[in-house]
Amino acid sequence: MATILITGGAGFIGLAITTQLARNTANHITLVDNFSRGKEDADLQAVLSLPNVTFVQGDLTDAAFFQTLPMNFDYIYHLAAVIGVRNVLENPDKVLFVNAISTLYLYEYAKKLPNLKRILFSSTSEIYAGTMKHFGVPVPTPETVPLALDDIASPRTTYMLSKMYGESIGFNYAAKYGIPTTIVRYHNVYGPRMGFLHVVPEMFIKIRDAAANGMALDVFSPTHTRAFCYIEDAVNATILCCESERTNGEIVNIGNASEEVSIKEVVLKIAGILGATITTNDQPDTPGSPARRCPDMSKLKELTGFAPSVSLESGIRRTFEWYKDKLDKRHE
Ligand SMILES: NC(=O)c1ccc[n+]([C@@H]2O[C@H](COP(=O)([O-])OP(=O)(O)OC[C@H]3O[C@@H](n4cnc5c(N)ncnc54)[C@H](O)[C@@H]3O)[C@@H](O)[C@H]2O)c1
User: Fold this and answer.
1) Of the residues 5, 20, 30, 36, which should be mutated to test ligand 1's pocket, given the most ligand atoms within 8 Å of the CB?
2) Distance 25 CA to ligand 1 centre (A)
3) Are 197 and 332 in contact (CB under 8 A)?
4) Using DSSP, how many helices (H) and how many strands (E) does the chain show?
5) Among 98, 122, 165, 235, which residue has the most ligand 1 atoms within 8 Å of its CB, making it the best to mutate?
């Protein structure tokens, strides 16, 4: 039996991890979220109806809130954060404030937990962006590349900076207070309930509209490649990283390097899955967009034995199954 806290539990990855962990009825899971982005939708309600899941609405930037939480957690998955390009551009102050303060308060609280076996901190592939831009990185990119910041004055830098700071909190609280910590760096995770401001759901709408209007679809950076990871693989990898002895004190990429595809290939694949006949119009490369982005996944495989198994075709089909009735009710 394990007692588990999931911060950001109403969000995309947090709720998917909860759904998987709750299948084991010996697990008792507490979700915390302030609904700044997570939604109180049918998927959340279904998970909250399970007898081994409890929801607590609260703000992790409120120090007093932590005094209301139980002290018996074995595992903590720290997923809560302010994310997304729009937030980064419009609310860089919130990105810095929430991502730093929530993580500091969580580790301060964790110092007092008698049974804690692990905190898993969710970091990001964005953390490699400064190095990639200014010095170049090997692709597939391993966890060992030195980290560099892009322009410190730019709001765009706030997200990667906040995640670097979070990783540093994890390592330094681990060293000083013996708090077992694992850092995972997610790479392009997609799937049902990820909102509408990501490339896959965005493409569902754009391709549907282009097909309906007989218009060519503009594809920017058409030859640039990316590697997408289906949520089910990301969830299984995350749980293994949190529970395995061998991942304690480690940074691990979570992604899927087995199908690195160009942006244009993704667009055409999605169109095929939607049964939409479209023409595409190649556009210039977006300034700053890296030509290749793909994680080196050998460390995850070596430490946990896990390799992703959901193909891009199958993952997009499963994602569309969830989105197809919701395309007109888009929300963030
Ligand atoms: N989705 C990806 O591909 C991806 C990639 C890289 C990193 N990550 C990281 O993984 C984590 C989860 O990402 P996601 O896609 O599920 O994001 P998400 O926005 O769906 O989930 C984050 C949740 O945190 C909650 N939250 C924000 N501030 C809070 C606060 N002060 N108190 C309580 N709850 C708060 C939000 O309401 C939201 O439900 C994030 O830390 C993100 O940086 C995700």
Assistant:
1) 36
2) 25
3) yes
4) 12, 13
5) 122
Instruction: Kindly give the parts of the chain with pLDDT less than 70.
Output: 330-332
Question: Cα dist. 37→41, 80, 132, 195, 321 in Å?
Answer: 12, 10, 29, 9, 22
Cα 245 from Cα 242, distance rounded (Å) = 8
pLDDT of the residue at 260: 96
Tokens at residue 6, please? 């999931």
**Residue 210, token pair as written in the block:** 């282009």
Residue with CA at minimum distance from ligand 1 atom 44: 186
Q: Residue with the nearest Cα to atom 36 of ligand 1?
A: 37
- Helix (H), strand (E) at residue 308: none
Best residue among 5, 6, 7, 12 to mutate for probing ligand 1, ranked by most atoms within 8 Å of CB = 12
For tokens 């754009």, what's the residue?
206
Q: Which atom of ligand 1 is nearest to the CA of 62?
A: 31
Q: Is 186 in the pocket of ligand 1 (CB under 6 A)?
A: yes
What is the DSSP secondary structure assignment for residue 89, as one 8-state letter?
Answer: H
For each of the domains in the chain, give its residue range(s) and CATH number, in order of start: 2-189+228-254 (3.40.50.720), 191-227+258-293+310-329 (3.90.25.10)
* Alpha helices in the chain, H assignment, sequence order: 12-22, 42-48, 63-66, 85-90, 92-110, 129-134, 157-177, 199-213, 231-243, 263-274, 298-304, 312-323
Q: In this structure, are residues 7 and 29 in contact, taking their beta carbons and an 8 Å threshold?
A: no
Angle in degrees, CA 175, 178, 183, rounded to 5: 65
Hey, whose CA ends up nearest to atom 5 of ligand 1?
A: 186
Helix 199-213 × helix 312-323 angle, to 10°: 70
Structure tokens given for 209: 């509209």
Pick from 319, 291, 290, 308: which is nearest to 126 by CA? 290
